[in-house]
Amino acid sequence: MTSTNAPSGAEVSRRSLLRFAALAAAGGGLGFGAIACSSPTTGVDTPTGAPHDGGTLRVGLYAGANDLNPLDSTSELTRWVTDSVAESLYAYDDNAQPVPLLAAAAPAVSADGLLWTIPLKPGIRFHNGDPFTAEHVAACLNYANNTSSPSEWIIYYFGYLAEAAASDPLTVTLKLTKRYGLLQSHLTNMPMTHKDFLKRKDAVMGTGPYALTRVDLGTGYTLERNTAYHGRRPGPDRIQIDVIPDGTTRTVNLQEGKLHIATQVPPQMVSVLEKAPGITVTHVDAPVDILAYPRVGKAPFDNLAFRQAVAYGMDRKGVLDKVFQGDATIGQGPVGPAVVGWDPAFAPYRTETDIDRAKALLAQSGIKNPSFTLTISNRAEMRSIGQILVEGWKKIGIDVTLDVLDGGPWTQKWITGKYDFIMGYYQSGLGSGNANFLLLSPAESTNILNSGYNNPEVDQLIQRTWASADPAERATLIKQLNTILARDAIMIPPVYPRTVIAQSKQVTPLSLPQLKLSRLDLPNLRMLS
Amino acid sequence: MTTAPLSPAAPPAAESAADRWAARAKVRIQRVGRPAPLTAVGIALVAAFAVLALIVPLFAPDPNASAGAPLEHPSSGHLMGTDHLGRDLLARTAAGARLSLTVGLFSVLLGLALALPLGMVAAYRAGTWVDDVVMRVLETVQALPVFVFAMFVIGLSGTGSSHVAGITLTMSTKVVLLLGVSFMPYFARVARAHTLSETAEDYVGALRVLGLPRRRVLGEVLVNVLPPVLAQGFLWIAIAIFAESALGFLALGVPPPTPTLGGILADAGNYVLANAWWYSVLPGLVLVLAVTGFNLVGDALNDRIDRGGSR
């Protein structure tokens, strides 16, 4: 009989392996702790020399784009890569006013406002040498206005644009079905690409200062300087955009000098970066939105008192302090501080949760055992926001289930209206500039993203807002819309986050006016010696 | 003539009961044997994890409610500190451990419940088409990595509750089903191998000669097949806990705000450079030590059964 605990050779081997694994794990844990406790080192030297052309600019993005066609997507993942490649007819100046870029002048609008004529600059060529003509512009606009195309721009043109046509090689005419004063804003935001690339999702060709020369799916993009560029010579010879999903890794890469610009800096890393030498952190109010739409067309959100209870019961302060470390503005209605129509004096919702009022409204709603599902997009900030809000609503007696979805399924739910309350993080500035178009349009009862809200007064105000060519009038109308939509709790973002970008001092600072419109304006950066 | 006892009868009776209990315990320990040091460590780790999962949640604050400032260091108020939303990390880790343990146990039990009959039937009908069909189907399931399988299932059904034929499946139930089905081929192979070995024994031949129905024979075989399969199952609890955490880490598990060990670690990863070392290290250690503990105990159980088999 063998001894009870005498191990065989095989047993010793397995146990040795386990012992090794346990020791390695413990060692790894301690090492990890040691790393976590230590201050991150920096490989960045603060330069002192003058700006100069050339070099490779390296940018860190948090994800790769599923679709590189800027006529399909207005997402920052697409636009921050392609903005240097494909240009718009107009660009924003430092006062957020449109100035001609590919267009030769401002549009000539007929007396009835239904015919727009746009002259184009002569002598501009695409990266492959083809001349930039009105035919390409018309093709882009008609593609964007085609319901069978996958273009997100359909929301911007559908119902307004009848047809775009080339009158001659350098003149585009746009026939509208109704007045559309906001159209120039769309023409400033929408890039124009080569007509042969309209259906491509893996490549883009434009007239911009850089050509997209390499796409490493899921890992990065390389842009090379366009030596035949029609405008001012861009700074860097090359722009390398790396996809680095983890926010901490992006910021470490920036500190180590492997990146010049880190986008989407996680809020918790801001204070770390601000203390790091050789790094500048820019905070700016830009059109970054937390889309927050209750499904008004079905219970329980068809009940106004219930919607208001949810709005008053929102833990805005928790979101502000714990998720954004105070770097945001308390949300009221859909209009935030970076867009036209912002009124800082308009504050129906307090910073602190108004529990008593929320409970009173809940009682007034008459809904017993209230509950709903909050559908949020799957990113770190949104997961935290969702958890804080769920806990806040629990305090007023509403049981909320959190549904966390990735981009595709989340968008599908939004489009199909299969949600109770949907929230997502969105850079609306790349499609709408500071005009608020994407944010406010779903409030119109005929909009495909409408949540079931049907208010003739709002419909009329929205129509007037988009029809107006007068920015001051638009701002006034948007203020009225914001008041109604906040009062009716149709769009109730908890906060308006600020855009935070960190950059190395080895390059000239990013343009603040462009950042305010969510643009990075990479071609105008210069390396410092 | 008899004499009355000098002392009352009760105390000696009590002593003898205690003696008898001690003697029995001693015999049991001798029979079972003193555990090897590593096994003892494993038992201690499993016991500690069980206490964390089952006892601590009874006393800890609400794991989803804010209990302090965000990212507070470990202190007497919060033994493991707080997370980025100011929630007590010990309470969240304990709730995550409870979920991991529950998912681990139930997924292994489900895998065993599915695999044991399949493996035994395949072995009993070895060489026939029944064996072929069962084993090929299980090999197909086995060929699909658990995380690919999880992504497929969760991609179709989402991370929320699903309604199937009038039954509501919560996300934790879906994780249990997912892991249980993934584990099934491994348990079935063990069950089949041990059943094959048992059916070659004389006693099975004798039972067949006696004309016992197949069901009765398999019942007798089950008695001998069950211990090694259960020991294997214990080892797989560690894998189930790790898999549940990995799914949570990849946001494919139980959605927030329900705490999972993987979800906590995923969140904590964002705060490593914010000097919140406790946020990732402490829950990470809990996971590592729990998996190590279950591995050590499962390994010891296997060894003991192997030796029992060889005797």
From TrEMBL, chain A:
It comes from the Bacteria. Keywords: Signal, Transport. Residues 97-437 form the Solute-binding protein family domain. InterPro entries: Peptide/Ni-bd, SBP_5, SBP_5_dom, TAT_signal. The keyword Signal applies. Belongs to the bacterial solute-binding protein 5 family. This is ABC transporter substrate-binding protein. It comes from Yinghuangia aomiensis.
From TrEMBL, chain B:
It is a multi-pass membrane protein. CDD domains: TM_PBP2. The keyword Kinase does not apply. The chain crosses the membrane at residues 38-60, 99-124, 136-158, 164-187, 276-297. It comes from Yinghuangia aomiensis. Residues 97-298 form the ABC transmembrane type-1 domain. It is found in: Cell membrane. Keywords: Cell membrane, Membrane, Transmembrane, Transmembrane helix, Transport. Pfam families: BPD_transp_1. Signal peptide: none annotated. Its main location: membrane. Belongs to the binding-protein-dependent transport system permease family. This is ABC transporter permease. It comes from the Bacteria.
